[in-house]
Amino acid sequence: MANSPDKVKLLINPVKRGRVEAGCDEAGRGCLAGPVYAAAVILPENFFHPDLNDSKQVKKTTRDKLRKYIEENAVSYAVACVDNKEIDKINILKASIVAMHRALDALPLKPEFILVDGNKFFPYKNIPHICAIKGDSTYAAIAAASILAKTYRDEYMMKIADEYPEYMWNVNKGYPTKQHREIIDNAGITPYHRKTFVKISENRQLKLFN
Question: Is 54 in a helix, a strand, or coil?
Answer without folding.
Answer: coil
